[in-house]
TrEMBL record:
Its EC number is 2.7.7.65. This is diguanylate cyclase. PANTHER family: DIGUANYLATE CYCLASE DGCM-RELATED, REGULATORY COMPONENTS OF SENSORY TRANSDUCTION SYSTEM. InterPro entries: Diguanylate_Cyclase, GGDEF_dom, Nucleotide_cyclase, Rev_trsase/Diguanyl_cyclase. It catalyses: 2 GTP = 3',3'-c-di-GMP + 2 diphosphate. Residues 251-384 form the GGDEF domain. Its cofactor is Mg(2+). The chain crosses the membrane at residues 46-64, 70-87, 108-130, 136-152, 181-201.
Length: 384
């Protein structure tokens, strides 16, 4: 059976509070990887309900054996946090169903930290109660939850360490306030327990991050031309055909087919390494000449294909001339270098399929041929 990376059932948006972003995210990683690590098992509903039911069972047993005000307070706080967490998860699922981009990530993780603190303080109460049954039930349950946290929350190591401390530290702090000397073993072993979980969290995090980075790079390189890091043909077709207009309104687009003039001579004169460096530079200049929503591809050799969604003829002419002028700045170094562009205008992109798109590309190629015939270093446009 082929190995498959963990895929979260639901993806959460990145936190918006500055402290929570620092606690949960690594800003050096791509956003898609941050979201994968953020949406690990610890934040999914199954883990939430498992921890919630365990804690509610413990508070119920504690109330049955020692119904004093502190255990009542623990029960009420646990019940309130459980309801709040369930409501947050329900709200997140509602937003997923309606494809909203923002989930209550900050609140969900904050509620989880408050639950950890409540559980840790409740465990300390069980120790201080002197009830052997509560001590035997609560302490191993807390240790199990702390260990599960190290595993489930390893995608967010700072958060995992804080959650472990909130679960375990109250027990250690309660030891001096009870009479049994043997419980001091918890204090003695605390640095070893925390250190082991810290190493576990970071080892799992490093493994997951490297695996996700490898997957990210593989997917990225499958979409990109390795030299210029522009979209390759297959990726360009996928993105172009994925464009949809809002409602039933017509969506005009422009298709630009660009080809470098005199590039072969540069390769022959200066060598292929210089030619590769020049292609990378030109690809970057083209990116700067385009709008955010435009789709740019290296079509092959020294040819480029650009789709301009929502562009009217005037906009497409402006962008074509901007690219021609950008390449023209290289004339002092490469006198024969230029850019010719063929433009095809499409009044309505709605319903475009692969066959129609290839026909538009052929028309843009024909317009490019006319631009070459008209003296190169210019653009020529036709209507679809």
């Amino acid at each position: 059976m082929p190995y498959k990376l963990y895929e979260p059932q639901y993806r959460y948006s990145l936190p918006r509070w500055r402290f929570m972003y620092w606690l949960l995210c690594d800003g050096d990683l791509p956003e898609s990887i941050q979201k994968r690590l953020l949406s690990g098992p610890s934040i999914q509903s199954a883990a939430m309900w498992s921890g919630t039911l365990t804690t509610l069972a413990m508070t119920g047993i504690a109330l049955y054996r020692a119904p004093d005000p502190w255990f009542w307070l623990w029960f009420v706080v646990t019940l309130g946090l459980s309801g709040y967490r369930a409501w947050l998860h329900s709200r997140a699922k509602h937003q997923w169903r309606h494809k909203s981009g923002v989930t209550p990530t900050d609140q969900i993780y904050l509620a989880s930290l408050l639950w950890s603190l409540s559980t840790g303080l409740g465990t300390a109460l069980c120790l201080l109660s002197g009830d052997a049954v509560l001590q035997v039930l609560a302490i191993p349950a807390m240790v199990a939850m702390a260990t599960a946290t190290a595993s489930f929350s390893h995608g967010t190591p700072r958060y995992a360490v804080l959650q472990i401390l909130l679960l375990d530290l109250p027990l250690k702090l309660a030891v001096p306030f009870q009479p049994e000397p043997w419980f001091w073993i918890f204090v003695v072993q605390a640095p070893f327990f925390w250190g082991a979980l810290y190493l576990m969290v970071h080892a799992l995090n490093d493994t997951s991050t490297q695996a996700l980075l490898g997957e990210y790079q593989s997917r990225r390189m499958a979409r990109l031309d390795p030299l210029t890091e522009l979209l390759n043909r297959d990726a360009w077709f996928r993105e172009a055909l994925a464009i949809r207009s809002a409602g039933r309104e017509a969506l005009p687009v422009s298709l630009l087919y660009a080809d470098l003039d005199g590039f072969k001579g540069i390769n022959d004169t200066h060598g292929h390494r210089a030619g590769d460096d020049l292609l990378r530079y030109i690809a970057n200049e083209m990116r700067h000449a385009l709008r955010y929503e435009d789709i740019l591809s290296r079509w092959g050799g020294d040819e480029f294909l650009i789709l301009l969604p929502g562009a009217n003829p005037e906009t497409s002419r402006l962008i074509a001339q901007r690219m021609i002028d950008a390449i023209g700045t290289l004339r002092p170094q490469y006198p024969d270098l230029g850019l010719s562009v063929g433009i095809v205008q499409c009044d309505n992109w709605r319903g475009t399929d692969r066959e129609r798109l290839e026909a538009l590309i052929a028309q843009a190629d024909h317009a490019l041929y006319q631009a070459k015939q008209n003296g190169k270093g210019c653009f020529q446009e036709i209507s679809a």
